[in-house]
Every structure is written in C-alpha cells, then in structure tokens.
Amino acid sequence: MERAKRTALITGASGGIGEALARECAGAGMNVVLVARSEDRLKALGEQLSGEHGISATPVATDLSDADAPPAIKRALEASGITVDVLINNAGFATFGPFVETDASEELDEIQLNVTALTHLTKLFAPGMVERGWGRVMNVASTAAFQPGPLMAVYYATKAYVLSFSEALSEEMRGTGVTVTAFCPGPTASGFQARAAMEDSKLVLGRKMPDAATVAADGFKAMMAGKPVYIHGLRNRLIAQSIRFSPRALVRPMVKRLQERVH
Predict the structure, then answer these.
(1) What is the pLDDT of residue 3?
(2) Is residue 23 part of a domain?
(3) Cα separation of 37 and 44, whole Å?
(4) What global pTM score does this model have?
(5) E strand intervals along 154-250
(6) Which of 14, 25, 110, 119 could bridge across to 38 with cysteines, CB 3.0–4.6 Å?
C-alpha cells in the first residue's frame, strides 16, 4: 500500500519565499496547509498546486499577529483529521527606521509574528512529530540574525532569536527523527522590502537579488537534509562567517551605513 502523503504547513504562503516553499512541498508530493491573511490568494494557489501535483491544499486565512491564531489553526486541522509532518514558519515582516521614531504597535505585531507565533506553532506541532518519529521544521531566519541591525533593530533581534531557538531545538531533537533547520536567506526579490518601506536603503538599492523560487528551492533541500543552519548563497555565507571575527564596535556602524537611505 502506498504510504500516505506527508503534509506540510507553510505560513506566509501567499507570496514571496513562502509561496515558493509551498510550491517546493507540493512538487515533492506533499499535501499543503497554506496559512496567510489573504484568503483569495491562498485559494488560488491551492487550486493551482492541487491541479498541477495531485495533492490536497488546505487554505487557512488568519492573521498570525493575533495571539489566538496558532491554537485556532491546530484545532481546525485536528477537526479535519490533518496531521502536520513538516512545519515551515516563514511568515514575518520588518520595520525600518530609527527605533525612537518607528511605530510601537507595528513593532509589537512584528515581535508577535516573527517570534511568538513561530514559537507557539513549533510548540503545538513538533511534539506530535517526535511521537511519530519523523518530522521537519524550518524556521526562516535571515542573514540579519548574525549581527545587530541599526535602523532595523527589532527585526534583526527577532531573527537572532529565531536562529538561537532553532539551533537549540535541533540539538534537543537529535536522534528523534525530527530535524529543525534555521534557514537564513539574504535580501531576496519579493514584497519584503516594499512592506518594510526600505526600497531606498543602501542595502537594497541597485542590488541584484536572487528570486524567491531559487532561494526556496535551496532552503527546501537543506530542510529535507536536516541541516541545523543553512545560509543561502556563498556571498552571504562568507559575510556571516566574517562577522564572527569582526569587533562588534566595527560591525554596528558598518551595518548602519549599509542600511541608511540614499538621499
């Protein structure tokens, strides 16, 4: 008898890297649970993936900046008899600008989404994976995780949390059949920069960025291979390693200069 298809839950699946990761999962024969705020976009993507790959796609339209969203997702899937074998915590956003000038409520939502929802979903779904003896968790961090980020202080701090949290869980779950991967892409061509209103920063302006599909394909392979930390792109890997050996007093102003707006 053919083994039942595995099911992957992907947050932030309505666009960018999240949508591309959903396509990778469906292309690998997995059923998908698509989570984001836009119901219409999720339904359209789900119908496309079902038609192309013969898998089932379940759209879940919800706002993960709402603290009640993760347990509501778990209850809905249990009621539908859906078991999650692969969890991809991709949803996240950034705020840009001097901390004393940025909007507090937006940054609290940023922490809720980038950190709290990610942690809560992992708490809800990882134990079942361990009980069944197989699972994959991908927490999408960033190359931002490796240094402080003046002008994006909260975002960089959230990604440092994601990296540390994921590495710790990876070690805790060694030998269980469940792996946890911190996936660290660099700047990627998606709607991320527009959402953060940072398209005129030196970090982004004039830079040739890889497309989301290329980044997602690389990250998907790393997740399935069970790599604890994976940085997309040789240049990004070299920069992340160089940060380890650079004095923090030099790193802070360097990152700030890279992120300043071009006037």
Answers:
(1) 47
(2) yes
(3) 13
(4) 0.88
(5) 178-184, 229-231
(6) 14
